[in-house]
Amino acid sequence: MAAGTRLRAAPGAARPRLPAQLLPCRVERDGPAPVAAFLRVQPGPGGELWASFRGRRMGGRELPLPHGYQGLLLREEEHPPGDEGRPQERCVTVTGTFDAVTDWGADAVPPPGGGLALALQWGPIAHAV
Fold first, then answer.
1. Which of 11, 49, 81, 117 has the CB geometry, 3.0–4.6 Å to 60, for a possible disulfide?
2. Could you tell me which InterPro entries the record lists for this protein (predicted)?
């Protein structure tokens, strides 16, 4: 039998609303980072966003999550090594939430109907079907 995942979220607990960024690059870091110190966002004349990250220019667009959806920032809890013959359950804790994702493109703003914008439409479509 496959191991499950347990989600821990204290009812009524205040969780910070955090910005979510989808970068057009790989960042070899897993954990909190002072993003505001490295990603200085400037609004453009058409509502787009502009920034540079590690010297590369990026164009972005903030995409709200569909109505009724909320993004969760999760942290996996460490478990001591257990019985090797039995899969262990994974436990994750909710540490923050987000209601929009900034989709960044290298040197240009991502197209309005492609990539992440298109993917965000599938939740409501699947729910309707």
1. 49
2. RNase_H2_subunit_C (IPR052863), RNase_H2_suC (IPR013924)
Q: Where are the domains of the chain?
A: 5-128
pTM over 0.90: no
Buried b (16+ CB within 10 A) or exposed e, 14-49: eeeeeebbebbeeeeeeeeeeeeeebebeeeeeebb
Domain at 5-128: CATH code: 2.40.128.680
Q: Is 37 left (phi over 0), alpha (psi -120 to 50) or beta?
A: alpha
Rounded average pLDDT over 30-38: 78
Q: Is 50 or 16 the better-scoring residue by pLDDT?
A: 50
State the CB neighbour count (10 A cutoff) for residue 90: 13
